[in-house]
Automatic annotation (TrEMBL):
<keyword id="KW-0687">Ribonucleoprotein</keyword>
<protein>
    <recommendedName>
        <fullName>Signal recognition particle subunit SRP72</fullName>
    </recommendedName>
</protein>
<comment type="function">
    <text>Component of the signal recognition particle (SRP) complex, a ribonucleoprotein complex that mediates the cotranslational targeting of secretory and membrane proteins to the endoplasmic reticulum (ER).</text>
</comment>
<feature type="compositionally biased region" description="Basic residues">
    <location>
        <begin position="591"/>
        <end position="602"/>
    </location>
</feature>
<feature type="domain" description="Signal recognition particle SRP72 subunit RNA-binding">
    <location>
        <begin position="553"/>
        <end position="598"/>
    </location>
</feature>
<keyword id="KW-0963">Cytoplasm</keyword>
<dbReference type="InterPro" id="IPR011990">
    <property type="entry name" value="TPR-like_helical_dom_sf"/>
</dbReference>
<dbReference type="Pfam" id="PF08492">
    <property type="entry name" value="SRP72"/>
</dbReference>
<dbReference type="GO" id="GO:0008312">
    <property type="term" value="F:7S RNA binding"/>
</dbReference>
<keyword id="KW-0256">Endoplasmic reticulum</keyword>
<dbReference type="InterPro" id="IPR031545">
    <property type="entry name" value="SRP72_TPR-like"/>
</dbReference>
<dbReference type="GO" id="GO:0005783">
    <property type="term" value="C:endoplasmic reticulum"/>
</dbReference>
<dbReference type="GO" id="GO:0043022">
    <property type="term" value="F:ribosome binding"/>
</dbReference>
<dbReference type="GO" id="GO:0006614">
    <property type="term" value="P:SRP-dependent cotranslational protein targeting to membrane"/>
</dbReference>
<feature type="region of interest" description="Disordered">
    <location>
        <begin position="532"/>
        <end position="666"/>
    </location>
</feature>
<feature type="compositionally biased region" description="Basic residues">
    <location>
        <begin position="558"/>
        <end position="571"/>
    </location>
</feature>
<keyword id="KW-0733">Signal recognition particle</keyword>
Amino acid sequence: MAEVKAARLSGYYGELKKFIENSNYNKVIKVANKILAEDVKEVKAWQCKTVALINLDQFSDALATVIKSKFFSELAFEKAYCEYRLNKVADAFQTIQGAAQSTPKVLELQAQILYRLERYDECHEVYRDIIRTTSDDFDMERETNMTAVLVNRTVEGGEDEGEVPVVDDSASYELIYNGACRLLAAGKLEQALEKLQSAEEQCRTYLTQEEGATEDEVNEEVAIIRVQQGHCLQHLGREREALAIYNSVLKTKPDDPALLAIINNNLVSINRTANVFDSRKRMKAATASGLEHKLTTRQRSTIALNHCLLAYHTNQEEVCRTESQALLKEYPLLTLKARVIQAAQLGREGKLNEAQALLNGCIKEYPQHTTEIQLMTIQILLAKGDKQAACTVLSSLPDKDRNRPGVVSALVALQVAQGDRDAASKVLREAVEWHQNNKTSASQLGELWRHAADFHLRTGDAATAASSLLELHKLNPHDTTTLAQLITAYARYDLKAAQKLSRELPGVGSVVEGLDVETLESALGHRYFKKMQQGRGEASPSSPKAPLTPGLEQKKPVDKKKAKKKKRKPRLPKDYNPAMTPDPERWLPRWQRKGYRKKKDRRVKEVMKGTQGVSSEAADKFDITKTAGTHKPAQAAMSPQPESQGPRRNLIKKKGGGKKKKGSGW
């Protein structure tokens, strides 16, 4: 019996080998079932059946087969691969950890699972071990995958390896593309754009010349490279070019839903608050279901944040509230941004105290973002009209932030709005002193001196303004604008100093040197000269009254009285009688007046009907309109029957047969 069983198994395995070589996976499954019917402990049969189901893309059946076999250690690779393809990535990682041997294929699957789990540091280490210990025809693919891992490490900020290497143009287009993405993540936008263009060119050349691909296949392959180019251009501020690329890719109708989601999200960010209807439509496509396994967490969080911002800017209060709560729950890294959106929403609804309390809680939780959150708090306070509290918050900022030109300008404006000019002057003085002590850039110090001088000149404190302008003049002695302002300030309280400084002003000749008078006059326009000449009583140059020779004396203009316009006498009809009241309908057409009578139509109404030569009496016999009602129906209906209920039709009745009747009123 045992020998017969062994012979049958041997025959089955021979058939199994033949079907495997011919890639006839359905037959492989049938033969494997026959083997398992003979002996359920045949591990090879279980493995062959599982692999055949995987090749037929029946991953659920393959996973069920592995579970039924109970050979989890021996079939760990197959089980993990099925779970990976079924998007059960966490289960796949636990399964692959229990594999009996760490073969190269097991390590590569482990690296892929780690990549999907976004554990990029561990994934990078696994790929480094594989590349170091393995050498075969797939080395280029492994290097490309490891570059993709490095891109995500750079995006997440976990890479600290110094200068980002530039991939040589002789490499494959996939490797060049990943290298360009790495440069883009590192902020080297110009270099990244050049590499992306090189990757697109190489991709088109390779697919067309070596693979013989069609134009549609080439467009499908380069779509992701083109979208990355648009993303790069968008960061460079060249949004029109980016928009053209996104639209050109959309015209090719790509099948990748993840790529479509990214394009639609980027288009929403370009639209901002304009073109709301288009943005809503595109955001709906970007947030479609089924993308959670195709996009990274960072990409999904960015799309969710943009969705929340779009809802806020389009006044969708309930949607904004729901999306901000989802951000807090699903993406903890965006907690601060979500709370800021919530505070802005509360401020818009008039709940300013709640908004301020929410921002104060953010300051305690995120002390590293204190300055940004305090500036948001100031906006809420100004919305409440509490200028004093806003000044207090601005004054409490750290010295480095409080003495920035923009913050100083805002604080001075608030102090002046409250009528406290002394406090505003003190703020400017302290800011100048801080920049002098800390030796900041000359441009910031000069800007502050100029603002201080302008403020003190407006408030009438010419001496303080002069001291600021004097320091600014020392900083840049060749600036004639500063010198002129300084002379103006001295002229208010020290004329001798103003006269002394005025000698340093450049001569008139140096100022007007190289000045084109004709260009200047044409810039002013002919109307300006016409008004100026009229004011002096001169004739315009194009007027025939202008003097032909320059030596003639001009006569003094004589004041002429304005000629009075004569009123035209009203023209009255010949038969006008002032004693009679005019007809109120005299301006209406005759056919619209009350007494209008339509002319009688003298045409014959009764037209002879019937054949030629038939009399009118004979014709009446054959005229159905004349005989209607002479014949009575056999049975008269007692009540009208309701019509059958069918599809309703809108019958539009024409009024007046499409013509306007004569004589009708308005």
